[in-house]
Amino acid sequence: MTGAAHSYPTQAVVLAGGQGSRLRPYTDDRPKPMVEIPGTGTPIIGHQLNWLADEGVTDAVISCGHLAEVLQDWLDRTQLPLRVTTVVETEPLGRGGGLKYAAGFLPRPDEPWYATNGDIWTRFPLREMAAFHQERDAAATLALARPRIPWGAVETDAFGHVLDFIESPPSPYLINAGVYVFSAAFRELLPARGDHERTTFPRLARERRLAGYPLPQGSYWRAIDTAKDLTEAAAELAVRGR
């Protein structure tokens, strides 16, 4: 199909409410998405918003939680590449409920939308993912990554002889990369409270309405969970660019 056959989302929800306890002390005075990759001078969420804007997103709703005022202050002081609305849950709603609440503030409720976890550092063509989603007539599409295993692997033969040592090989399994494309109607499928990955996603999978989009070969993806992730992301960024 040609690009003209597709309608790409122009709105997104960014989930930025996590406490990031494994990133302490970086998260003692700021929410996890406000942590800076060393050497960039820009927090994770700043890079995310630039990426979304590059992919045609004009409006983003940011769901805040832990130390929300720090994130909101940075957004107020920063020249942003798109329009941003922030929302804060007045009571814990769970991941699915929080996503549903934030999606209620999207400016075009009758159009599809992206969502992304606020601690993901990635670059890949979102429009291609949106086309994949549309071609499969899915209610929801998950980006799928194949991260590297953080340990060295040992290869053996059937008899038990060690054949080789492989440093940080790719995982044999695909994982949820924390980036999504949702149909306009998906919000109504989310629980008001609770975790959509335990309710909505399994139901859609049984109905064959949930799609998985493998990240293209060579795409960059990293979840920023620990101080080691920060250090490795900075080194990778120095080689790859933004």
UniProtKB/TrEMBL annotation:
Residue stretches making up the Nucleotidyl transferase domain: 12-237
Segments passing through the bilayer: none
Q: Which Gene3D superfamilies match?
A: Spore Coat Polysaccharide Biosynthesis Protein SpsA, Chain A (3.90.550.10)
Residues folding into a coiled coil are: none
Domain of life from the UniProt record: Bacteria
Residues in the signal sequence: none
Could you tell me what this protein is called?
A: Guanyltransferase
Source organism of this protein record:
Streptomyces albospinus
Q: Highest lineage ranks of the organism?
A: Bacteria, Bacillati, Actinomycetota, Actinomycetes, Kitasatosporales
